[in-house]
Amino acid sequence: MPYALNDQYKTVGARCVVPTGKSSNIGREQSIVPLQKGGFKLPLTVAQKIISEHLVSGKTISGEEIIINIDQTLTQDATGTMTYLELEALDIDKIKTKKSVAYIDHNTLQSGPENADDHLYIQTVAKKYGIHFSRPGNGICHQVHLERFTIPGETLLGSDSHTPTAGGMGMLAIGAGGVDVAVAMAQGEYHFTMPRIVRVNLIGKLNPGVSAKDIILELLRRISVKGGVGKIFEYTGEGVKNLSIPQRAPITNMGAELGATTSIFPGDERTFEFLRAQKREKDYLEIQADNGAIYDEEIEINLSQLEPLVACPHSPDKVVPVSSLKGLKVNQVVIGSCTNSSYGDLMKVARILQDKTIAEHASLAIAPGSKQVLSMLAKNGALATLIMSGARILECACGPCIGMGQSPPTDGVSLRTFNRNFKGRSGTISAKVYLVSPEVAAASALTGYLTDPREFGLKDYNKIKIPEAFLINDNMIVAPADNYEEIEVIRGPNIKPFPLGKPLLPEIKGKVLIKVGDNITTDHIMPSPAKLLPYRSNIPYLSDYCLALCDKNFPKRAKANKGGFIIGGVNYGQGSSREHAALVPLYLGIKAVLAKSFARIHQANLVNNGIIPLVFENPEDYDDINEMDELLIENAIFQVKSRMVKLKNLTKGKEYKMILDITPRQREMLIQGGLLNLIRLKENTKE
Ligand code: MIC
Ligand code: SF4
Questions:
Q1: Residues lining ligand 2, CB < 6 A?
Q2: Using CB atoms within 10 A of its CB, is residue 514 exposed (0-12), middle (13-18) or buried (19+)?
Q3: How far is residue 447's CA from residue 467's CA, in Å, rounded to a whole number?
Q4: Mutate to test the pocket of ligand 1, among 161, 401, 521, 522 (most ligand atoms within 8 A of CB)
Q5: Rounded to the nearest whole angstrom, what is the distance from the C-alpha of residue 401 to the centroid of ligand 2?
Q6: What is the SS3 assignment for 616-685?
Q7: Rounded CA gap, 227 and 208, in Å?
Q8: Each residue of 245-295: pLDDT tens digit?
Q9: pLDDT grade, residue 685 (50/70/90)?
Q10: Exposed, middle or buried, 275 (CB in 10 Å: 0-12/13-18/19+)?
Q11: Whose CA is nearest to atom 7 of ligand 1?
């Protein structure tokens, strides 16, 4: 049952240090002050506690718009250049968040000056505005953030869809488009729709050879890539206690693949243990769901019954048991990404590979998640074990996960410990990418065939514990400047101005320029292989590749017709947070996207850039519209103010009812031509 937290409670969180083994009530009963007369106390979930503590306005009823305070932000370089250009456009002196970090981890090939230009721009802009800068080589944003910055009970907004990784440590961490993150840095706030809260009750214990990755693969198998839209997944139950932070993080990380707003674990003794090993005990907060907390939905997973799983091409929810694909010949294995590149993961891999050699017909590449992970492996000798087995060691970055190197051969089978296996994302259009746990990946690299690690002769690799103390060295994190007025922002020639939406016209008319099917990802809309990723700050350049995976003539057609409409199926825009999937269509003159449903971040990105996201009231109308049909929305300014929009198909002489399910503030954004225009208008009317 939805209810409004803010009407009844004020929380008074206190950060505390908990001796291991003992549990504190802070974040439980003591942090909740009942405001309602009579002292009736409503039990709360972890997410509800954090939201209520950060609530600026709105009612916490699922489906209602709320505003929360944002404590931290993160960006990475592929979305970061745009985010910081947008931050500059907001005309502020210094950011308002407690801590913001700019990572360089995606574009690290530097096969031309573009990447290095972007890095320099981000480094200087970060220094000027009060943002910490994680230098290239320091690691993948989500892994480093977990190690050095994540704080239970706080809020994090990141311009990357896997920002919820930090939820593994009890932080409310949400992925968003760059402009939302820029606004959060400038104003300290984020607007979003209160999600439904799903309790994922974990019972039992993982058996040897079964990985925490298999828990999230099981959830994907059950509810699919659209099963989490509009929801927060909150993990509870006795099974949680058996999972360390580096095991919880892959689960919250791949909550993004469910389409979830975020996923979260409690802050408990395991969180304390991890923070203490990172010398950050002071950041600990115990935060647990109250007994009797009310959830909107419930799912139960018995960990003892799980077996090693694999997600088949080309979607993370095409999950089957590894045992059912026995004998699948593998050309390549890649271990890494923000999902599975922790110290614990790579130590398990090293134990499996120890004193063995990878199969002659398969290659193995390993990208450790951070400088901390890599230096610890180097110090304890595990790195030598990996190298001796034949593994190719890559730098601590996203690398192959975003198609930056290690593309498989034509028609190749690649096993990856990553989170996404969309067609073409690896850089080889005909490749078949399977997503697996590190244990399955390592065992398969040795045999050259998809291998169930349980059959492989288990050693003690499943017993790897998190170390008592991680190797701490933050020398690759650059602090912001005190003399920020004097810092000069360096802009290389690759940094081009970004397109700004225009206020809505009374009439929207245009042709259907492309019609695509279900589950179209932002990787389809704005592909990001090694050849294109360096141009993330150059929208005109990227525009020639928009939706080209679906139809290579789309960009030309869009330009020739001076824009028009896109038609999509279910879950349009799933996957990454890249706002380029909205900025590039905006540049091509796209006025509205009509779909059967939208993924959360992409829908917000469209509206943030003044593009109207319309949902078919009657999904069968999708079948009625053809490419090059001429469409018309009359009285557009009036119509976008309401939930129902009438759309005319002039070619077919028909009219369709379209749903515009957005917040009142988003309607204003559409009228003004996007979020930045709306903010500027509000600033100007204040003066
Ligand atoms: C991804 O995994 O798809 C990315 C690349 O990290 C994206 C961000 C981007 O496109 O820059 C994401 O997940 O948001
Ligand atoms: Fe990087 Fe891949 Fe994680 Fe995206 S999913 S942040 S590309 S490692």
A1: 106, 140, 160, 162, 337-338, 398, 401-402, 419
A2: buried
A3: 30
A4: 161
A5: 6
A6: ECCCCHHHHCCCCCEEEECCHHHHCCCCEEEEEECCCCEEEEEECCCCHHHHHHHHHCCHHHHHHHHHHH
A7: 29
A8: 999 999 999 999 999 999 999 999 999 999 999 999 999 999 999 999 999
A9: confident
A10: buried
A11: 576
Which stretches within 93-237 are classed as H helix? 113-129, 141-148, 178-187, 212-223
Looking at residue 512, what DSSP letter applies?
E
Helix (H) or strand (E) holding 530: none
Tokens of 199: 């309790």
The phi-psi region of residue 443 (left if phi > 0; otherwise alpha if psi is between -120 and 50; otherwise beta) is alpha
Torsions phi, psi for 183 (to 5 deg): -65, -40
State pLDDT tens for residues 396-408: 999 999 999 999 9
Name the DSSP class of 329. B
* pLDDT tens-digit readout, 206-222: 999 999 999 999 999 99
Centre of ligand 1 from the C-alpha of residue 577, in Å: 6
Q: What is the mean pLDDT of residues 164-176?
A: 98
Q: Give percent above pLDDT 90 in the chain.
A: 89
Residue type at 313 in one-letter notation: P
Structure tokens at 667: 């309607």
For ligand 1, say whether the CB of 142 is within 6 Å of any of its atoms: no
* Residue 150 token pair: 């994540």
Smallest CA-to-CA distance from 214 within 314, 345, 321 is with: 321
